[in-house]
Amino acid sequence: MVDRVKRNRKQASARDGVPTGDARKDRWRKHRVARRKEFVEAALRALDEHGPDLGMDHVAAAAGVTKPVLYRHFEDKADLFVALGQRGTEILLERLIPAINTELAPLPRIRMAIDAYFTVIEEHPNLYRLLVRKSFAEKPVDSDIVAEDKELIATALTALFGDYMRMFGMDSGAAEPWAYGVVGMVQNTGDWWLERRSMSRDSVVEYLTQIIWAAIDGLTRAQGVVLDPNVPLEENKVVRMSRQRDRTDQNDQTEAG
User: Fold this and answer.
1) pLDDT grade, residue 255 (50/70/90)?
2) Does one domain contain both 97 and 220?
3) I need a surface site. Which of 53, 145, 160, 222 has the fewest CB within 10 A?
């Protein structure tokens, strides 16, 4: 997994990492963590208002502070960009993991997972556009957060598909290309839909659901396995996704299963 922050990791860990044992320093550290989170939420509000071309002055105004105060908690624009990306990942996984792991029949399970993704990009379109563009206030950054999240989800789906393939006595070697293919199709369709909006979210979710199920059904039937799309499988395999947090949240993880 690509590290989200490539600069000054050791210094950031020492400043914002594990508790030091000094009560006063630890209280200050917790205060900084809380303030950073407040500023990230302010940045999300500024994104809603100003779009992906927002600057640090917009974020400071949304937070009700001056830019110098903002820069006490973020090294630079790239640092805030990464923090926004981390928050975006949290929002996505909070919606996506429960949907993927729901104990439903294959077809509604697929539908719920796709709908969770489209719901997130519909609710936070400017955050998605900012992260795809990989720049903040016209300053390029070296973190490709969208690609990292794609890798994270595809890796988790590879394990999930592999578990099911082995359960059905199939060769699990196809799990990885299948996972990356599904994730790529959903993301690319999401890019198109977010800009065009030529159909409703429900419609595009249903089209993708039917396409993905048709592919799965064709593959399993070719191997002599016939599945009812509307009947839950005997065993509900689940996805586990986790990512070590950088900087202030280094010791926290997002995990579900």
Assistant:
1) very low
2) yes
3) 222
Range of the domain at 63: 25-74
pLDDT, tens digit (0-9, with 9 covering 90-100), for 85-106: 999 999 999 999 999 999 999 9
Q: pLDDT by residue (tens digit) across 25-76? A: 767 778 789 999 999 999 999 999 999 999 999 999 999 999 999 999 999 9
CATH number at residue 166: 1.10.357.10
Mark whether 55 and 95 lie in a shared domain: no
Answer yes or no: pTM beyond 0.70: yes
Q: How many distinct structural domains can be found in the chain?
A: 2
C-alpha 17/C-alpha 26 separation (Å) is 10
Confirm whether 6 is domain-assigned: no
Scanning the structure block, which residue is given the tokens 């290309």?
177
Is residue 99 a part of any domain in this protein? Answer: yes
Same domain, 101 and 218: yes
Would you put residue 225 in left (φ > 0), alpha (ψ -120 to 50) or beta?
beta
Is residue 226 classed exposed, middle or buried when 0-12, 13-18 and 19+ CB atoms within 10 A define those classes? exposed
User: Does residue 110 share a domain with residue 42?
Assistant: no
Q: What is the DSSP string of 149-204?
A: HHHHHHHHHHHHHHHHHHHTT--GGGHHHHHHHHHHHHHHHHHHHHHH--S-HHHH
Token pair 């089209």 is found at: 207
